[in-house]
Design brief:
By secondary structure, the chain is an alpha+beta fold. It has three domains: 120 residues, Rossmann fold, CATH 3.40.50; 53 residues, Dna Ligase, domain 1 (2-Layer Sandwich); 117 residues, ATP-grasp fold, B domain (D-amino Acid Aminotransferase, Chain A, domain 1), CATH 3.30.470.20. The chain contains ten helices and 14 strands. It has a six-stranded antiparallel beta sheet with strand order 13-12-9-10-11-14. Helix 5 crosses helix 6. The two termini are 31 Å apart. The relative contact order is 0.16.
């Protein structure tokens, strides 16, 4: 059943969706590659069925998605775009009625993982180390000398993220960064944990160092084992209530200990490293998606396996690309 599934993968213009589409095809699945951008690289992958959808903030997103599901009859949908999760959750029952399986967190989890202030409150209430966090109006009372990180409260992909030395500089940046939040600047080795949380709450964690990061994406990494980090990641996953494939970021701090900076309810952009290290991450995700037991023993992995990513030319040719010639470009938008 798994090897022949028809699966919609959203966000195939980004690294998680693009790599997931290719990996699923390698398992024998038929991929319906979706994106809001008609030039998204995942739409021109050999073997996919390309599907242009509006951005999730478009009021027609839900209607168009359901139209696609009625027409192409997928058996499952996997989202790699966090900000479309509320819209998908709202359509979960209708998708199920159409025979489309999903494995989505609840709305409260999406709120917590998407709001850095709420995330800080939840983790600190559980005693889980996470960077100190302040809203702009709280800066006058901050006794920490800096440095600080100023970023959007609900941002993603390292956009509008700035490091500064003083509280005065942070205050100025808060005027420039939309819906800003201020955090202490943590020094140490940054890591990502590729995770799968089954329907009973049991989690597997694959740790990898983020050795080189570009635009928020780890392009060079190496797997490692660390019991303290793995346990802290599991506690963070439980605190926010995430299920299915997800990822956690944090630091092995220079001063000692581990801190968690964020949880994302989706595959990470560097998840192919977890697979290369021996973790059967995608196939076990498919098992959980169809409500079969996840075999956590298949998610064990080797340390000191590395990955390096680069920009890739996916397709060239005469305009328009053949895979897009039948799509309605007016329905798209910026992804």
């Amino acid at each position: 059943m798994i090897s022949n599934m028809r699966i919609v993968v959203t966000g195939t213009g980004g690294a998680p969706g693009f790599d997931l589409a290719r990996h699923l095809m390698g398992l024998g699945c038929h991929v319906i590659a979706s994106d809001a951008n008609p030039l998204a690289c995942g739409l021109v992958l050999d073997g996919v069925t390309p599907c242009l959808l509006p951005s999730s903030n478009d009021p027609h997103f839900g209607v168009r998605l359901l139209d696609v599901c009625r027409r192409l009859r997928p058996e499952a949908l996997i989202s790699t775009i966090e900000w479309e999760l509320p819209a998908l959750i709202a359509q979960r029952e209708v998708l199920a009625d159409l025979g489309v399986r999903t494995w989505l967190p609840d709305a409260g989890t999406v709120t917590v993982t998407g709001d850095k202030a709420a995330f800080h409150s939840v983790l600190t209430a559980r005693g889980i180390p996470t960077p100190a966090t302040w809203l702009p109006h709280q800066l006058d009372a901050v006794a920490v000398p800096g440095p600080f990180v100023v970023k959007p409260r609900r941002g993603h992909g390292s956009q509008n993220v700035h490091v500064c030395r003083t509280g005065a500089q942070a205050a100025v940046l808060c005027e420039l960064v939309p819906d800003a939040i201020v955090q202490e600047h943590v020094l140490g080795q940054e890591f990502t944990a590729d995770c799968l949380v089954d329907r009973t709450g049991s989690a597997s964690v694959i740790l990898r160092h983020r050795l080189l990061v570009k635009a928020g994406l780890s392009v060079v990494g190496r797997t490692f084992h660390d019991g303290e980090a793995a346990e802290l990641v599991k506690r963070a996953l439980d605190a926010v209530g995430v299920v299915g494939p997800c990822c956690v970021q944090g630091f092995l701090c220079e001063s000692g200990g581990v801190t968690v900076t964020e949880v994302n309810a989706r595959f990470a952009g560097g998840f192919p490293l977890a697979v290369a290290a021996g973790a059967d991450l995608v196939e076990q995700t498919l098992k959980g998606l169809v409500e079969l037991p996840v075999d956590h023993s298949r998610l064990a992995y080797k340390p000191d396996v590395y990955l390096t990513k680069c920009f890739e030319t996916v397709a060239t040719g005469v305009w328009p690309p053949p895979a897009l010639s039948g799509l309605d470009e007016s329905a798209g938008g910026a992804s």
